[in-house]
Amino acid sequence: MESATTRPAAADDPDAGGPPAALRLSGLHKTFGANTAVDHVDLVVPQGSFFGLVGPNGAGKTTSLSMAVGLLRPDEGTSQVFGVDVWSDPVEAKALIGVLPDGLSMPERLTGRELLTYIGQLRGIEAGVLAGRVQELLDVMELGAAERTLVVDYSTGMRKKIGLATALLHGPRLLVLDEPFEAVDPVSAAALKAILTGFVASGGSVVLSSHVMPLVEQLCDTVAVMAGGRVVAAGPLAEVRGGGTLEQTFVRLVGGDEQGRRGLSWLAS
């Protein structure tokens, strides 16, 4: 397998005297029985970056992100958020992170406002502050018209938006989003993109996992490619994709089934 791994700029590396990375994964490793899902992954997400994590199904993206944010304990390795260890100091670390997992489960017999209020109360946000944040999030996410609609009756796009709202509610410095645009209609996707780019422009950092290469190229300034539980390329978008598109680089690095690319014999002309 071809590798083109590069490191992000040293200014974002605490070892080089710069500010701590928004997210630093060091030697993360996870096995499930005989299967190695994540194989000693090292990854640095610079502060203020819009970071894209791409890879085929089974590459280890979701497992890596789950370990990174404290949802799944690694067999080996560490995850640090702005220099705070996720596993030795989980309360402080998780206060800095907003997470939108793939297939997010949430209390569905609540309205959007009730859900956000409930999450805010769990977070310990003062009542007056919480009410203002809930209203602002509903307005920005364009969910105000669904004031009395239960989450169980939300469309896929609405569920993604309310999920992102729960991730933003406590004012995190880092968002970690696993397939946030999957099955989302174009109108909702445009709204989500605007919110995320605005978050980065205001000083936040985003890690986005996606299968959609044009989307990553549109939004992200830094990317990493995973395959077989390992990072096979990482760095600024322009460096990783070289002279081609990100999709072309991805196919070259990850490879694929040549028979599948040729197509089905009985459909050939």
From TrEMBL:
UniProt keywords (A-Z) are:
ATP-binding, Nucleotide-binding, Transport
Keyword ATP-binding tagged: yes
Region named Disordered: 1-20
CDD domains named in the record:
ABC_DR_subfamily_A
Q: Give the molecular function GO annotations.
A: ATP binding; ATP hydrolysis activity
Residue ranges of the ABC transporter domain? 23-253
Protein name as it appears in the record: ABC-2 type transport system ATP-binding protein
InterPro entries found in the cross-reference section: AAA+_ATPase (IPR003593), ABC_transporter-like_ATP-bd (IPR003439), ABC_Transporter_VariousFunc (IPR051782), P-loop_NTPase (IPR027417)
- Low complexity composition bias: residue spans: 8-20
What PROSITE patterns does the annotation carry? ABC_TRANSPORTER_2
Q: Which PANTHER family match?
A: ABC TRANSPORTER ATP-BINDING PROTEIN ALBC-RELATED (PTHR42939)
